[in-house]
């Protein structure tokens, strides 16, 4: 059986240039990826969500609740500048957004939901919406 191979003429000429295009975006020192890491816990009354968002300001975070779907979005602005005297030796900037959404098993009571941001961790308390009770009517 014949083997097929894909020929990419640019890979030999510019390997580093095209390899970096396929890599995930990095910020800061280049070691941490821009992503929201979640921990979701559940008890009988509510869900508790811990979202790690280091380097993000509280006013740049947006949380949206739609039934049992929760969406977290943040604007990320990172700047780093190293100076020696009056000369700037290196200046790095990153501006972008990061988002994460997930679906829970039960609907969330958005009127009672709370959010708190402290030391780079967003804490959400999402009370479960009471299940609609069914009532049996007597026919007269």
Topology:
Blueprint: H1 9-13, H2 15-21, E1 26-27, E2 32-33, E3 37-42, E4 46-52, E5 61-66, E6 69-84, E7 87-103, E8 114-118, E9 121-127
Antiparallel strand pairs: 1-2, 3-4, 4-9, 5-6, 6-7, 8-9
Describe the structure.
With 140 residues, the chain is mainly β. 9% of the residues lie in helices and 49% in strands. It has 2 helices and 9 strands; from the N terminus they run ααβββββββββ. The strands form 3 sheets. Strands 3-4-9-8 form a 4-stranded antiparallel beta sheet, with no helix packed on it. A hairpin with a 2-residue loop joins strand 5 (61-66) and strand 6. The longest helix has 7 residues, at 15-21. It is elongated, with a radius of gyration of 24 Å. The termini are far apart. Mean pLDDT is 79; it is low at 23-32.
Write down the overall geometry.
elongated
**What percentage of the residues does DSSP assign to strands (E)?**
over 45%
Q: Compute the separation of the termini in Å.
A: 80 Å
Low-confidence stretches: 23-32
Mean pLDDT: 79
Instruction: Please work out how many helical segments DSSP would assign.
Output: 2
Secondary-structure element order, N to C: HHEEEEEEEEE
Helix content: under 10%
Radius of gyration: 24 Å
What about the largest sheet?
Answer: 4 strands, antiparallel
Number of strands: 9
Q: Strand order, biggest sheet?
A: 3-4-9-8
The structure class reads: mainly beta
């Amino acid at each position: 059986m014949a083997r097929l191979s894909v020929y990419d003429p640019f890979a030999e000429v510019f390997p580093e240039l095209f390899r970096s295009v396929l890599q995930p975006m990095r910020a800061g020192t280049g070691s941490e990826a821009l992503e929201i890491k979640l921990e979701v816990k559940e008890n009988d009354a509510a869900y508790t969500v811990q979202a790690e968002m280091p380097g993000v300001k509280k006013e740049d975070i947006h949380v949206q609740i739609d039934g049992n779907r929760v969406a977290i979005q943040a604007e990320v602005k990172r700047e780093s500048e190293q100076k020696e005297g009056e000369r700037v030796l290196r200046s790095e900037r990153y501006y972008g957004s990061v988002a994460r959404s997930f679906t829970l098993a039960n609907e969330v009571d958005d009127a009672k939901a709370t959010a708190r941001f402290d030391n780079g961790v967003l804490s959400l308390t999402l009370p479960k919406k009471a299940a609609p009770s069914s009532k049996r009517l007597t026919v007269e």
